[in-house]
Amino acid sequence: MTATPAPAIELRGISKAFGPVQANRDIDLVVPRGTIHGIIGENGAGKSTLMSILYGFYRPDAGEILVGGKPVAIADSQAAIRAGIGMVFQHFKLVQNFTVLENVVLGAEDGRLLRPSLSRARGELKRLAAEYGLQVDPDALVEELSVGHQQRVEILKALYRRADILILDEPTGVLTPAEADHLFRILRGLKDEGKTIILITHKLREIMEITDNVSVMRRGEMVASVRTAETGPAELAELMVGRKVLLRVDKPPARPGAPVLEVRGLRMVDAEGVERLRGIDLEIRAGEILGIAGVAGNGQTQLLEILGGFPEAGARLQGEIRLGGRPLPLQGPGADGRARRRAGIGHVPEDRQAEGLIMDFTAWENIAFGYHHAPEFQRGPLMDNAAIRADAMGKIQRFDIRPPNPDLAAKSFSGGNQQKIVVAREVERNPELLLIGQPTRGVDIGAIEFIHKRIVALRDAGRAVLLVSVELDEIMALSDRILVMFDGHIMGERLPAEATTGDLGCLMAGVEPARADAGGGAG
Amino acid sequence: MERMPKWADVILTPLISLVLAFAISALVILAIGESPAEALKVMVQGALGSSYGWGFTLYYTTNFVFTGLAVMVAYHAGLFNIGGEGQAAMGGLGVALVVLALPWPHWALALPAAAMGAALFGALWALVPAWLQARRGSHIVITTIMFNFIAAAALNYMLVNVLRPVGSMDPASARFPEAAHLPKLSEMALGLGVEWGRNTPANVTFFLAIAACLLVWLLIWRTRLGYEIRAFGKSEPAALYAGISPVRITVLAMLVSGALAGLMAVNNVMGEAERLVLNAVEGAGFIGIAVALMGRNHPLGVLLAALLFGFLYQGGGELALWTSIPRELIVVIQALVILFTGALDNMVRMPLERLFAALRRKGA
Amino acid sequence: MDFATLIQILDSAVRLMTPLLLACLAGLYSERAGVFDIGLEGKMLMAAFASASVAYATGSAWLGLLAGIAGAAAMAGLHGVASIGFRGNQLISGVAINFLASGLTVLLGQKIFGLGGRTPSLSGAARFGEITLPFADSLRPVPVIGPIYAELVSGHTVLVYVAFAMVPLTWWVLYRTRFGLRLRAVGENPASVDTAGVSVVRLRFAAVMICGVLCGIAGAYLATGISAGFVKEMTAGRGFIALAALIFAKWRPWGALGATFLFGLLEAVANRFPNLDLGFVTVPSMFMNALPYILTVVILAGFVGRAIPPRAGGEPYVKER
């Protein structure tokens, strides 16, 4: 009993690149047996890639994996299962029209005939349900279960395969708070039975609530591993976002004018019945940049899509939007992207590759995208391609888009230049209101500065800007006012001059700063 | 980064696919104990060696241009219209009804009216599958297949019970009046004092097909609708962002597609048979799929591919006449072209992409 | 309509539904595994030709059956390579297979037999003969049950009984075996199978090959059971009616039995009464012929009992990042 037991999982120097993108760089990680280990980081920080390596979806370019102290080669999912690793994916890998029992048994059958497998599994499920509080009706169809119960099926699948190490990827993203609480009770029960749990999340509150240790990833690297009791949400938020070179944007003080956009009581329930927006109220004035901070997935995307005129299919909306005092319809034919543009709303979408651009179209074709009805682009019954090209050439020059070739397909430009195409298109229309989501995600430093200047210039021309970003620095550098969104509502409002990253980090984690300080002191 | 230069994508891959298709066809000819070289000679001579051959080649080409354009327009909207056969059949009904309804004084008046009838009937036959796809999510490939068979039955009924002249035993409409006969290319050539292609079915509709290529090119690459069709076909989320309605584009693209398929009837029903007969389309609707795939969904490519298939059809007929190779050889070639340019595209493309990547590394 | 006519029509329906049923079940395996198949027609045609040729050459219907299965399986293999191996478009691959079979059968037929694409007439052991079930003749005089047993149940070729036996067998394979569970899973959500450590490619290939085997039996029945030899284009759209029946059956084995019986009955009635006089209206045979397709479109539109295809159907599986 003198030697400490071998850790459940140990990673040494794991690296993985997809083409030019280094998703994981020299990652070390030690997860002691019987603990809950949090891995936290922003979208694209490399968490999911790392876990996919652990589950045999990818082979690492370099590095070593040790399970229970022994080096293992995990070539495929079967090998991961044999090593005692189970995975609960963010998007469940369940067969919707199968029963719970069939889903649990799939791939882990005892023999060629189903009946013996199913009856053994039925007994096993009963035992697991009693042991860990994982009650699910084994004969229910998965598609009839709530999301929380479907997740339990995923956990049961892993336990049925005798997993000792359970990886959960963003498990609470789809859960209601009550379901999330129940999940945490289950996880604690599993831990008490000696299972090891790795929890991947970008939600600070969850890390603080349930983990024993936490590792922080940023841009493909593991930047810190600490005991949860010895840290706090503010410190973690800073580690996640990173102390980057302080972004400085020279901008004169704002001179806000009349309100341009007013949003009152905006609610949205998506097609799956999850409430994504829970009553948003906000106002943006002319000549003002309103920044919305928050960890991704707290309703910012839905807010932008509704304002831009393309809420996801099947969503139910409620509330009021006014632009320059005139009410705008929330849904229906008069509320599409074209009508929004006509009303004076420009929109740089969060996902430029899927939404903002047609990647196979040329740069000049993309310059007209969304504005292809504009009178200056028409010549009789045809589109005036010469005019569009001339317009594109001007924008390419003014925005220094490189290479300056309008005939190149959008997919051939770098991320920064793709974004410049979208920004040029939306900003130069001089809209009453500019919606701009993640303006500098995947954009190089030079382009970041340029794009920020254009946003400020638009503001100084007396226009309203709604900025959504998960980059706290960007929000603090650009905004005249900051709202923090959490779980579909506005957590709080701050002025950039008085806000600190710690303060904002708490709000982003859904914690009122005063209480967080008290809690941090006690812990 | 582009994986391949554009010319390789547009010219090299279809060319390699074509070479593969022809190589295997040559093997098939060898397997049935004939000489591929001899067969090719007979085909070239029969289809292109005389104005008589050209007169048939261009007639088939005209059919395939229309059905190829039909598949192409739907494809740009991300839709696979496999119903060209039924739409062209209904187009024939449209032509027959229009031409037989009025005592047309001159073909120049009858032609635009018949073309409108053909386009309208073809478009309407595509409308139901389009609407079901856009509104109810019914898979358009399956519904258009079903509509092919429903069209065949409907046409059969119309010919037997409605359009068949009294006393005739033939399930066919009455002959079209003399005044509504379209001028053959041979007659037009004779008007210019040139002896060309006597007794061949190529007719003035050929020019309509060329015009259709031009108009479709304008539609897809020069109009707002075409812009929206292409955008929707490439990315539905982006289309929604830009305020392009998926329902509207699906329906409009299929209407245009069906109308183009329907227009084929002007050539085969009004221009050649001069009455409506059973199974007038003879598979041209399906050949449109091969033509569009081969032509890389560009009107110029479609025109060239239609010419290739026109050549194959006429050449295949000559083969059957002069050798013991049945004309079904062209169906095999057609199948291989669809297989290699469509379903096995990745097989041709992936090694090419690797090759160009290797070349680039060497060059860099 | 008297009882004897009814029996005759039903008997004819059974004969007509047999190739539909086999092809429908063939499509069921493929599509439940997530591989769309509009090439049932071509596979059946190829099988019909191969079986008739070999049956003629060897004088054995059984060897013909094996050849038919081999012919259809070769086409199925091509479909598998294109749509699973190279992740090509499953629909385009199906179209190509239909044309390939249509052309090759005539080409080879002309080469081998020189009869313009047909094979010589088969007779004797080169055809599947009708089997008289025990007591069929002695039970015949019994009212109602006698004719039903002697005419309807007895007196078909062995392949008809094979086709009917395939229905419970398919049901059993699909719902009672490990293979069936995995097959259904791979058509609904291939990621579920993949993350469980089972090969998606191997499963789908197996399904596509089973589809080929069943199409082979269907084609052999057409050429050596119901007819006496191969005729050009002899499948005459049956592959597409089978596809329609599959949708009508909502991709279920017992549903396939019902749907193909309905479609077979429609064809039998249309054959018997070219113009069906219902008293107030005369139904033309063309309408009866088109009815399977019309009904399928109605079902697809979801106005009556929506048909939901396997969720992963038509999509090549690419591992998610």
From TrEMBL, chain A:
Translocase found in the keyword field: yes
Annotated ABC transporter domain residues: 9-244, 261-512
Subcellular location: Cell membrane
MF term (GO), any: ATP hydrolysis activity
Alphabetized CDD domains for the sequence: ABC_Carb_Monos_I (cd03216), ABC_Carb_Monos_II (cd03215)
Pfam families, per database record: ABC_tran
Positions of transmembrane segments: none
Keywords: ATP-binding, Cell membrane, Membrane, Nucleotide-binding, Repeat, Sugar transport, Translocase, Transport
Keyword Transport recorded: yes
Family: Belongs to the ABC transporter superfamily.
PANTHER family: CARBOHYDRATE TRANSPORT ATP-BINDING PROTEIN MG119-RELATED, GUANOSINE IMPORT ATP-BINDING PROTEIN NUPO
UniProt protein name: Nucleoside ABC transporter ATP-binding protein
Taxonomic placement: Bacteria, Pseudomonadati, Pseudomonadota, Alphaproteobacteria, Rhodobacterales
TrEMBL record, chain B:
Gene Ontology CC entries for this record: plasma membrane
Domain of life from the UniProt record: Bacteria
Compartment(s) where it occurs, according to its Swiss-Prot or TrEMBL record: Cell membrane
Membrane-related topology note: Multi-pass membrane protein
Transmembrane segments: 12-32, 52-75, 87-104, 110-128, 140-160, 202-220, 240-264, 276-295, 302-323, 329-348
InterPro entries from the UniProt entry: ABC_transp_permease
Name the UniProt record assigns to this protein: Nucleoside ABC transporter membrane protein
TrEMBL record, chain C:
Molecular function terms from GO: transmembrane transporter activity
Pfam families in the record: BPD_transp_2
Keyword Transmembrane: yes
Keyword Lipid biosynthesis annotated: no
Matches recorded under InterPro entries: ABC_transp_permease
Transmembrane segments annotated in the record for this chain: 12-30, 65-84, 91-113, 158-175, 205-231, 251-270, 290-308
Alphabetic keyword roster: Cell membrane, Membrane, Transmembrane, Transmembrane helix
Topological type in the membrane: Multi-pass membrane protein
Superkingdom of origin organism: Bacteria
Major location (coarse): membrane
Protein name as catalogued: Nucleoside ABC transporter membrane protein
Source species of the chain: Paracoccus versutus
